[in-house]
Known about the structure:
Layout: E1 2-8, H1 16-27, E2 32-37, H2 47-52, H3 56-67, E3 70-74, H4 84-93, H5 100-104, E4 108-114, H6 122-134, E5 138-139, E6 146-147, H7 163-186
Parallel strand pairs: 1-2, 1-3, 3-4, 4-5, 4-6
Amino acid sequence: MSTIIGLSGSLRKGSYNAALLAVAAEVAPDDCTVAVESIAGIPLYDADLEAAGAPVPVTELQEKLDAADGLLLVSPEYNQSIPGVFKNAIDWLSSFPLGGDKIFRDLPVGLIGASPSWSGTINAQTAWLPVFRGLAMKPFLGETLYVGEVRGKFDEDRNLTDSALRDRLTHWMAKFAAFVAAETKQG
């Protein structure tokens, strides 16, 4: 049984990316658990804060991530790139006390995202690749999942109404879960 930590890169209560993450956890294969966690409460990175000791939301998430087999990032796209709040969270997680080498090195990571634009999150997902490389993560590159024009795929309560997207996400999660399981066996 694999455990994957799932993080949405949006703090907005009605986030489509948080809704997409919830569905990804729901459709994950039976031999995989997606634990939906949050980046809420993580302050802006500040080396003075770090020197005083990492904030509790950071250390709690670090411990959960350290015990996980994989990481699923569900990233919106802001101004053609990574949302600052999401990158900030990863910067904190790669720092004191456990450190990026321990947490991220060789960690299987998957990346999906949703956007109101037609292009989905193509630019944000591309912008994440140097971060994965810098942290020595193992990105799942077998398939991509960009959800464009997302407003028509969820209802006002953020319930997925698009059966084709549910099928695509189910297929993607099966492939990603298999990737995580294979990488875990090798490690």
